[in-house]
Fold:
Amino acid sequence: MTVLQGMTWDHPRGKAPLVALGARSGSKGQTAVEWSARSLQAFADYPLDELASTYDLIIIDHPHVPLVAREDLLVPLDRDGERAQALQELAAQSVGASFASYTHTGHVWALPVDAAAQVAVCRPDLLSDLPRTWEDVVELARDGRVLWPTKPVDAMSSFLTLASQRGAEICGTPDRFIEHELGLTVLQAMHALSDRVPPACRQENPIETAERLATSDSWLYAPLAYGYVNYSRPGFRPHRLAYRDIPEGPKGVAGSCLGGAGIAVSAHARDRDAAIDVAFWLASAPLQAGEYYWRGGQPANALAWESPALNEDSWNFFAGTRATLEGASLRPRHARWMQMQEHLGDAVHSALCRELSDEACLDQLDAAWQRLVRAADTPGAGP
Structure:
């Protein structure tokens, strides 16, 4: 038996199905994967070169793809023609841009196994009519029962969602992170809600928001939070949550910041063929619509999202958010985006906390982006 080492992220959605499906009997023989997990924050931040030197299989966030492509940290999963048909099928079965998010420079660097974007979440026993627009959300928040996770990384995601809904071009020029007039409009919309939700929201992530909604009757709705199907399933928490499409903007429900996760094979994998076999198996429609979900996962394959059984079990989590996922937007495809993402989260969070003016926030983002562009043009400056 081949034994591989895998790294995922530490939440039932990210870890439980992989641990439960730890052994694969396939075309490459019997393969076992011993899975370790890193925190949600480390999922976004931990250096992939260090992970790739230690683990054979890695669950990654798609904004890392331009960097791993540049540094050859992962195995291109289209490296030969053997899997061409399987790749075509997975591309056709993608929920929104989930599959495309792991492609870059003409290659496929990971396969989607988990699909997510910012969506709305509510307690349907407490709220029957969901707000339709952002202005409706702000009005609902007058009663003090709306939550909105805006710790820096989630403030970043919400900024990108609201900007994309308004047609913004992020990192479109070497000088401007975003056109300032539009950036100010987005920040003003964020302030309108941030000023009406509990201050503690500024230190919370979507999991913590879901926990509050699922364990207390004090709260009934959050407009932008990455979906976690676990909370929609019976028995996971005292109260079940319903996830639905985000509030409409100028482009309807399109524009949500795409999340999710993909399975990648390290360039240093001890048995590449066995690792690739496991990756394609985990992304396959039969497994995604079957054991992957029933073992606690949040599948990425469209056949799972269209499954009547899975929708019935999850209060229509998949059908209720599908339009948002189909219109979700990718973060900029730049090898230095993960560095820019950190600047964006910190600056927007400081603006929401009134520690930084909106104008100063946008100036900081321009300056950070200009530094990264200059560094990219400097020989020997790194990735």
Notes: The mean pLDDT is 94. DSSP finds 17 helices and eleven strands in the chain. Residues 166 and 250 are 6 Å apart (CA to CA).
